[in-house]
Amino acid sequence: MPKVTINGQVYEAEKGRTIIQVTDDLGVQIPRYCYHPDIGIEGSCRMCLVEVKGAPKLMPACATPISDNMEVRTDTQRVHEAVRYAMEFLLLHHPIDCPVCDQSGECWLQDYYMAHAGHDSRYPLGQKTRRRKAFNLGPLVKLDQERCILCTRCVRFTRNVTKTNEIQVFNRAHKSEIGIFEDKPLNNAYSGNVVDVCPVGALTSADFRFKARVWFLMGTDSVCAGCSTGCNLRIDHSARAVGGAIPGYTATDGKIYRTVGRRNVEVNKSWLCDEGRLSFHTLERWPRLQHAAMGGEQRIVSDLLPAIHERFDTFRSDYGDGAVAALGSATNTSESLFLMKKYFKGRVDFRLGKEVELYQQQQDELLRRLDKHPNTHGALDLGLAGALNGLRGLRDLAERKEVRAMWISFHPQLVGDDGLEIFAELKRLVRALDFSVVSTTHDFQWARGASILLPMAAWAEEKGTYTNYSGRVQMTNRAVMPPGDAQPLHVLMAELLNLSGVQVSPDPAAIFRWLSREMPAYANLDYDAIGLVGAAVALAPEEVLR
Amino acid sequence: MTPVKSGYAVDVPTINVSERARREHASVWSTFRAFAVTLRRLFTSLVKGDMPTIYYPEQTRPYSERFRGTHILTVRNDGSLKCVACYMCATICPAECIYIEAGEHPNPEIEKFPTRFDIDMMRCIYCGFCVDACPEEAIIMSREHHQSVYNRSETIYNIEKLMARPGIDAKGPGYRPNRPMAEAKIFNKSEQQACPYPSVIEERHPAVLYESMIRRRG
Questions:
Q1: Option in B99, B213, B216 nearest A249 (CB)
Q2: Region of residue A278 (left: phi > 0; alpha: psi -120 to 50; beta: else)
Q3: Chain B within 8 Å of A246 (Cβ-Cβ)?
């Protein structure tokens, strides 16, 4: 391993890596615009210049591979001045429209100007070159050519990652600009990522555009629930009540404004698909279920749970344990499915459609998978794909009166359609049952026929773990509060278990520890160690099934 | 009336009330002296016409040019709202009384405009920070300070009310510390024929990008 000296400190680094990759790992800050770890090296912005001993000129850290006994300095006056002049050059024709720019607050130009430049522009504002503004590249992306610094991150993203080549640099020298061909809009399934990679305000999201200023937002690290890939993302939501206490205008419980890809090399690099990126809108698409209801009458959840437990107990004593079952969904967290399995003594299934066949099949070669549920692997690990045979099997059992009372928990899939046949089956199932408890996130037509209707927290409103297609346990976090009386499923299940005499805390950490004690595949997992990037499960689910 | 030093950062005079009452001769003679003052004022106001009082609220005293009354949203020369919905005022506002929603302006040079701009005047503390923060001189303060309403909800001023209301015409602008910009002027209905601000908001359905995302109600 070559030895590299960076700012006087000696480090050992892997051969073949560039200086900026080494310094990023070490935590030494080098300013950059064009370098991004996941899209290839360009070396066009000249911001990452560092002093290398023996080299006559300053070297770009992103494009210079390390060699043995290399001595690098990132903090000299020469480097500082080079960065300062690079900044002045990049800002020469910048329109300084920060007040109306959506990037403002998370703009690298702002950050590096404050850190390294701080100069006055030599061009008066009126004489700067005017270019196209608010130019639609595609359905999700808008381009402002005045703000562009031609780092070509977006160009390299479409060239190297999606391989669709929509965005190109047109013209040369001072006239060069980012653009698309007239007949080829930026409409690939991953177009939203160019907004994430753009270090300045040139590419803005049409979805998030002008919705909020970023300094009002708070980020919560979470996992996408759009498909079984489980891409890591950050949910940006309102941090405080918007607009003070203006009656009727406040979003007191928080509102999700956007989701941004979070880097996890093991799962999604830095990317998100557009469907997953916009999947949080699904929660707003239908009216949410706010209150619990029994026979169409509004009730309090805490009053209903003892009644539910009593009814289930009656069915168990009258018709045997087999008469009571539960149907979860692969969008529920592992914790809630585990507690469900405990309360319903293993008579739990989660299959609504073809989750198990599809959950490892890729929809395209990048990220998307055909199973649009985040936790199919986790549910399989829990052994929930048993003899009940999914939704269809349970409906058969219910119509033959072998199952008489059921808890049905339904969370709509966040990407794509649930399929009308699923709703039809659920409707038949509810009608066939003597006693049905339905916990759903939204006010569905089919669920109205249930004996008891409970509101349930949706994705981003509960904390828990999902296990993705490859067996990686990842944490999904609560970003906003559930509406009305809605509660996470694991809280409802913990309450029922407490009523049945099993003492269990509704804390997801405690439930996970219980889960990892009982499940051999999860035995080595420490809840606190799952953290931001997740942890891999030892066993494949097929082995658990056998 | 000797200043005491101990315990205070500055010199604080102490007042002996009974001592002051003795010195001021609080007796029947002071009543007659008060009548003398009244008679003198009567004489000056009747004969000289020097009136110390005014008929408020029909008449008001002149206010300072820097008076911080209820806000005004200024307009461009074509009568459209000057505000670009940058949220600087909402960010600086210590009372969090400004609520803005932004929209896409038809002119890409302007880019952004407020589709909603509300100030809760009951929450506002009239500090004038919003005026200081505004980069466009789109929000200034007026010399109007009357806040009598029949309904609490009337104290939430929307764009129309912030831009033009009778009080602004009567009192004129107040606190306006920035270099007065030629473009920023107060809305005048007589000059204005067209719609004062673009009310057409571009309809977007961001969630429905793909056919597969259009879903039916279950």
A1: B99
A2: alpha
A3: yes
**Which of B112, B118, B213 has the CB atom closest to A416's CB atom?**
B213
**Please, which residues bridge with residue A452 across strands?**
A294, A437
Q: Name the residue in chain A with its Cα closest to that of B101.
A: A211
| Rounded-to-5 percentages of helix, strand, coil across chain A | 30, 20, 50
Instruction: Count CB neighbours of A293 within 10 A.
Output: 21
Q: What pLDDT digit, counting tens, does each position of A425-483 carry?
A: 999 999 999 999 999 999 999 999 899 999 999 999 899 999 999 889 999 998 888 88
Contact B212 A275 (CB under 8 A): yes
Residue A398 tokens, joined: 């219910």
Q: Which one of B97, B216, B218 has the shortest CB-CB distance to A244?
A: B97
Taking an 8 Å cut-off on Cβ atoms, the answer to whether B156 and A285 are in contact is: no
Domains in chain A, CATH or no CATH each = 3-90 (3.10.20.740), 124-210 (3.30.70.20), 285-545 (3.40.50.740)
CA distances from A36 to A147, A312, B26 (A): 19, 56, 86
Provide the shortest C-alpha distance from residue B141 to chain A (in Å): 20
Which of A382, A261, A276 is CA-nearest to residue A330?
A382
Predicted structure pTM score: 0.84
- Which residues in chain A have Cβ-Cβ distances shorter than 8 Å to B215? 285, 416-418
- Apex CA B53: angle with CA B48 and CA B58, to 5°? 120
User: Is the minimum CB–CB distance between A274 and chain B shorter than 8 Å?
Assistant: yes
CB contact under 8 A, B99 and A416: no
Give A420's contacts in chain B (Cβ within 8 Å).
216, 218
Using an 8 Å CB-CB cutoff, list chain B residues near A99: 84, 86, 88, 135-136
Cβ separation A244–B120 shorter than 8 A: yes
Query: How do residues B159-186 score in pLDDT, each as one tens digit?
Result: 988 988 888 888 888 888 876 777 778 8
Give the per-residue SS3 of A187-253. Answer: CCCCCCHHHHHCCCCCEEECCCCCCCCHHHEEEEEEECCCCCCCCEEEEEEECCCCCCCCCCCCCCC
Q: How far is A269 from chain B (nearest CA, A)?
A: 24
Q: Indicate the residue type of B47.
A: V
ipTM above 0.90, yes or no: no
Please count the other Cβ atoms lying within 10 Å of the Cβ belonging to residue A68. Answer: 10
Query: Tokens 């049409």 correspond to what residue?
Result: A206
> Is A325 within 8 Å of A341 (Cβ atoms)?
no
In the CATH hierarchy, which top-level class contains the domain B71-191? alpha beta
Which is nearest to A328 in space by CA: A343, A314, A318, A306?
A343
Q: Do A213 and B99 touch (CB under 8 A)?
A: no
Q: What span, in angstroms and rounded, lies between the C-alpha atoms of B99 and B87?
A: 9
Q: Assess whether the previous peptide bond of B57 is cis (omega < 30° from 0).
A: yes
Q: Which of A314, A334, A316 is nearest to A325 (CA)?
A: A316
Q: How far apart are CA A53 and CA A65, in angstroms?
A: 14
Count CB atoms within 10 A of the CB of residue B183: 14
Mutate to test the interface with A, among B97, B109, B209 (most CBs of A within 10 A): B209
Residues of chain B with CATH 3.30.70.3270: 71-191
